[in-house]
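Problem: given the chain below (133 residues), write out its structure.
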Amino acid sequence: MIQLYIGNKNYSSWSMRPWVLLKQANIDFEEVFVRFDSFSPDSKFKATIKTINPVGKVPVLVHNGLAVWDTLAIAEYVAEQFPEKNLWPTERTARARARSVCAEMHSGFMGLRSACPMNIEAHLPEVGGLGSA
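Solution.
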């Protein structure tokens, strides 16, 4: 059974990405939630994750004793394990283009990420409102 160790999907797009991939592809997995308490080196979160991933970050996919971390590495691994799911385009140039777009989304847009952190749980009607004219 595949296990996916994640933090809070409401606040971590990194955790949300492989979760969505596995769900969308209808691949069975066990979701293992690791609570973000702190990111300091001596936090419970770091201590828990470092037993699985030496980098101490989520997400981490564990399959047959192998730990794979980083969302793109997880996507590549899952695509290789489940080729029938067609997670990447089959045509070489289309696949290269798809990987380029994914890599850019994965590591780019730092200004946007800083200005628009992920929070899909909060209800903040006053943020982004038009105000009165």
